[in-house]
Amino acid sequence: MQRLLVGLGLCALVLWGAWIRAHTALADPNFDAHDARGMLRSDPALLYYLTERILESGGGVPVDFGAETRIQHPFATDVPAEFPLGAEFLVAWAQRYLGGATPLHVTALWVMAGVAALAVVGIFLWACQASGSLAWGALAALLALWTPANYRTIGFLLVGEDLSLTLFALHLGWLAWALRSGRARDYLLSGLCVAGALATWHAASFVVTLELGVLLLGSLLAGRSAFALPRSALVLVPPALFGLLVPVLRANGLLVSPAAALSLALLAPEFVRRRRALSPAAGRMLVAGVLLLTLLGFGALAPSSYAHVHQVVWAKLAHLGRFPDDPNAISFDARLLWQGPFETLSWAGILAWSGWPLTLLLYLAVGLGMRRGATGGAERFALGLALVALPAAWMFARLSVLVGLFAPVAAALVFARLPRRRLALAGFGALTLAQAGVFAGFVREHRIEWYLPGPARSELVRLVEWVCANVPSDEPIAGDFVNSTALLAHTHNPIVLQPKYETERSRRQAEAFLTTFFQGTSAELAELLRAHFRCRYLLVDRYVLWQLSRLTAGLRADERAPRAGTAAAAFLAETDEELRAIPGFELLYRGARDVAGADYRLFRLRD
């Protein structure tokens, strides 16, 4: 009976969380539930296109996915090796078998809302198994359910983190279960969840690296390996197999990544101890030596998929999280990533996403945890994850969700060990209810930042319709990251730049375009289009290119206008007469002049 009640309670929490996500998005005035053409741009439009392709293939892998020619012209893209897929298949299957007349993007909204809401199950299992208490598991789940950071992706269709972080939360929950049961199958299932998380979101490898780093630090302090328990190393088997078999993990070098190096360093002492006695000091030296050697060796073998991430991390540390006045003080790749969801998040921003009750609970948990004997291994592990999540969220705003996932469990596990249990439950419960009030205000005031207001959406629809009617579908179009994918998704014209730049090739494409546009002449841009991109059409959105791209291209923030003589000065001009006078280019389309955030111009190279 107890299991049934727990199951029903978890179902209610998941359904409520999914409804909040979907309802909040549908209530947003900028979310168009009928027509995706004016709404989807940037990453969501690219992922929408991939989902369409899967749906057109009956829910299977399209035959040309290994050499897709539309995503990054003039190159063929190996989609399974370049993009972590998972949510796209779930949405395509839901649309095929359940969607009916529902627009694909609305099906995606509901599917991803449900998938993201399932994270609460992992959080409940983690807190419940680690504390041995259903009450503390329920309180941790409620606290997470009412944390704004866990809803950062409301309305962001098809983003991989919604699926990946849910799988990661289930991994932590199943790992806590395995530690209590000791069964091999539970360790393997926990490993399967983390392997799925790695395969469905590029940044999951960094989350796993944080987890392994916390385990390594705990092992060094305790003088005992995290894999000392029988069968616990089985949790690494599924990720290792996925690293060999899943194209995107193989291409990105999971088996030669920092996460792999940390795993080997954690395994080394136990491997040696099975053959000979090993003192704690010798174990620590062995861990340090294996870690150093593997990091050096793997670093030489690792592909360049995450080179831009390493560069932006060092750039943020060097500049204390503040984007430099002179963008050229950091590399192009660092500038490329240092924008949007990868901006530095202020500590006030972290507090806002976390909510003051959760922040207070975490603060109290850290203080209590520092008291001698106030925490055991499970509490130290959860606290370690919550604490490393704070600088991670500061460095990349997108990772504020990690605080929302880890802090509720960390606080619950510490409070669960307090001797005055009724008082601890009452205080924790009161602050959890206060968090519900904070969350209600967040939902009431929430607006999705990714989508255009009505007039701008109408302008994008007009552009899409014009391209469909007047540009042959096999003609590639060069343009910015944001609008290019809108054309890819809705006109199926090949595009030159796409917003997922994990490969060296994609980053060099972006660098060539932005540098030439902002620092070269219109003649040099024409040559770039003709010779390198093999493309005759150029889409220019004055707002996106000037407001969102000039810093990436190396212009200073105090430069109020394009540099004279550059392609930017010509193509971002205000009047039709100036746009028609650009040598070598023909102005084909000009949108409305008075719509904020959508000033579209489409050009074609003259023969």
Would you kindly provide a written description of the structure presented here, covering whatever features stand out?
This protein is mainly alpha-helical and 607 residues long. It is built from 28 helices and 6 strands. The chain has helices spanning 2-27, 42-56, 79-82, 87-99, 104-117, 119-131, 134-145, 160-181, 184-200, 204-222, 237-245, 247-251, 258-273, 280-301, 307-318, 332-337, 347-354, 356-369, 377-395, 400-416, 421-445, 454-470, 481-491, 504-519, 522-533, 542-549, 567-571, 576-580; strands spanning 68-72, 75-77, 477-478, 537-541, 585-590, 600-605. Strands 3-4-6-5 form a 4-stranded mixed β-sheet. The protein has a two-stranded antiparallel sheet with strand order 1-2. A hairpin with a 2-residue loop joins strand 1 (68-72) and strand 2 (75-77). Helix 2 runs parallel beside helix 23 and helix 18 (356-369) crosses helix 20. The longest helix has 26 residues, at 2-27.
Rg estimate, integer Å: 25 Å
Overall pLDDT level: 91
Structural class: mainly alpha
Total of DSSP H or I helical runs spanning 4+ residues = 28
Helix content: 55-70%
What strand line-up does the widest sheet have?
3-4-6-5
> Sheet bearing the most strands, described?
4 strands, mixed
Q: Topology, please?
A:
Layout lengths: L1 H26 L14 H15 L11 E5 L2 E3 L1 H4 L4 H13 L4 H14 L1 H13 L2 H12 L14 H22 L2 H17 L3 H19 L14 H9 L1 H5 L6 H16 L6 H22 L5 H12 L13 H6 L9 H8 L1 H14 L7 H19 L4 H17 L4 H25 L8 H17 L6 E2 L2 H11 L12 H16 L2 H12 L3 E5 H8 L17 H5 L4 H5 L4 E6 L9 E6 L2
Parallel strand pairs: 3-4
Antiparallel strand pairs: 1-2, 4-6, 5-6
Helix pairs in contact: 1-5, 2-4, 2-23, 4-5, 5-8, 6-7, 6-8, 6-20, 7-20, 7-21, 8-9, 9-11, 10-13, 10-19, 13-14, 18-19, 18-20, 18-21, 19-20, 22-23, 24-25
